[in-house]
Structures are given as structure tokens and as C-alpha cells.
Amino acid sequence: MTVTDPRPLTGEPVSLDLLNTRWMADGVRQDLLADTGGLAVWLAANRLDGRFGADAATLRHTLAARDALASLVDRPGDPAATAEVDAVLGHGRIRATLTPEGPGEEAEFGDPAWGPGWTAARDYLELLRTHPERIRKCAHDACILHFFDTSRNGTRRWCSMAACGNRAKASRHYARTKDH
Is-contact 20 146, C-beta < 8 A? Predict the structure, then answer.
């Protein structure tokens, strides 16, 4: 049985997608990673389900990685937040490989349960290395989602124009018209 991903924003880079396992719905905070079933949905959404299991240890370590990433996104450059992400990264490494197809890289883990969280933390490093200014939190006050701005001019403000963007426009319109 395939479970539908209930989150309002999917398809972001894996690090931001991990942060987006928490979202607001009708003023109530939701959490996809409340159990191993939600972890299975997230792993499948990020094509990690073939490599990692949705068990209690993987959930625990993935939640630790999410908390570390959330701390760093909320407090960029903070030494404690940086140390938290670095601790997650300490659970894996990249090994250079050479196969008949050519050179490559392979992630290795002392404990495979750290694999998904480590993969998300490693992805965040890549976003920081390439375009840190495009890592964004949705501009809507009630939204807690994050996205990687892929717009041409780098000015995207909303996780979704259809949801948060329209709510903001409607609020501005209401504020303008209520005084008339």
C-alpha cells in the first residue's frame, strides 16, 4: 500500500525537504516524522527507501539531523548549531571509488541508521557551497517551510505562490479595502 505524502511542499533538495517534514495546517503544527510510517514516506519521496530502512533507530537519527539542520538554518554561523550539524556529518564519509564505468563516490556509514540524516546534512553543505543566498524560509508569517530559490533572478519569497503567496495578497487586499 502506497501512502500519499501529506506535506504541502515537496521536491526540495533533501536537506530542506527534511526540514519540511514539519509544517503548519490550519494553525496546527504537523510532523511527518512522528512515527516510522512517516519516515517511510519521507524516505520514498527522496528515493532513499531502497538504501535505508524505516526503523526506530533510523527515525531517531533522522530526527537528530533535522533538529541540527533546523538550528543551523535558524542561526546561521552559530558555533553550537554548526557543531550539531558537524556531529551528524561525523557519522558518515565519502569514499572515492573506481568502477568500470569510471570514477565515483560512495557514502559509507558506521551505522546505516545515520544514512538519511547524514545524506541531508551533506546536501545542506552542498547548498551552502554553491548558493547559500538561495536557501530561504517562506516569507508568510504563519509558514515554517523552507525552499531553495531556483527562480531566474533569485527573488522568490513564498514556498508556494498558490498557498502562502495568495494568502499574503489576500491579507493586503483586505487591509486596503476594510478602511474604505
Answer: yes
